[in-house]
Write a sequence for this structure.
């Protein structure tokens, strides 16, 4: 692996991927098989970004030429081929995953899209018209509802991708971008927008504790607004609100949905 790292770094430094084509192709193949990731968790729960892997993806784009890609009755024109269906994965047409992404057994991909470098864990549902951006790291048993936009973070190579940990529920039409980290079991309500700078305010905390770019495990988050003073006057700007915490009895999806409706959380 160290030799592979050295060759990718050399190709990046020289700016010419051609002499290093074999190493670049090997990295993309390992990503496609889930044997390599753009970012991975440590034993302490932190996430480490593997910048050299992201560099390999960028070099792969330079290496490839656009060509016609045929998938059944559908035809595309792109630099990156579509992914072959992995064992145990259900893909509903016209759901598409790009080569170099990984879908673990038990994943269901409805008519949505998974980009190169993304990692999707076992049993995760990617619902209709949801998109999983480049290098996003999605855990096991995550539910990504219809129309969700998980942003890609490919450049700069050192930037952390979006991370959604095990068991999270991402509500319909929500947007998560700029390397936001959603903790295990968290619930993101419908229409919530999370960026690296949007404040996430814990409304259950006496002092209104704030987070940026991070949703704690098992937090229940909805879209909110708060007043802010500008030279022109006071206006309301977007924020996100933590209004509760998921309990052990909400592990069952039906029980979770019932509880969220009782709390008035749109999903």
């Amino acid at each position: 692996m160290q030799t592979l790292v050295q060759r990718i770094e050399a190709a990046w430094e020289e700016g010419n991927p051609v002499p290093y084509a074999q190493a670049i192709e090997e990295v993309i193949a390992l990503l496609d098989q889930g044997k390599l990731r753009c970012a991975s968790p440590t034993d302490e729960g932190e996430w480490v970004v593997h910048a050299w892997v992201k560099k390999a993806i960028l070099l792969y784009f330079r290496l490839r030429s656009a060509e016609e890609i045929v998938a059944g009755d559908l035809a595309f024109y792109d630099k990156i081929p579509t992914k072959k269906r992995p064992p145990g994965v259900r893909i509903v047409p016209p759901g598409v995953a790009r080569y170099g992404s990984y879908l673990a057994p038990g994943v269901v991909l409805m008519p949505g899209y998974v980009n190169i470098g993304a990692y999707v864990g076992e049993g995760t549902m990617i619902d209709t018209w949801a998109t999983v951006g480049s290098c996003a790291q999605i855990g096991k048993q995550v539910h990504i509802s219809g129309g969700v936009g998980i942003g890609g973070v490919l450049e700069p190579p050192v930037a952390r991708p979006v991370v959604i940990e095990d068991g999270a529920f991402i509500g319909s039409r929500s947007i998560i971008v700029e390397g936001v980290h959603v903790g295990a079991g968290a619930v993101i309500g419908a229409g919530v927008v999370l960026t690296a700078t949007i404040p996430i305010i814990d409304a259950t905390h006496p002092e209104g504790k704030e987070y940026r770019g991070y949703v704690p495990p098992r937090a229940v988050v909805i879209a909110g607004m708060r007043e802010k003073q500008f030279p022109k006057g006071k206006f309301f700007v977007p924020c996100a609100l933590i209004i509760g915490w998921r309990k052990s009895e909400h592990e069952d999806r039906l029980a979770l949905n019932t509880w969220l409706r009782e709390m008035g959380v749109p999903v």
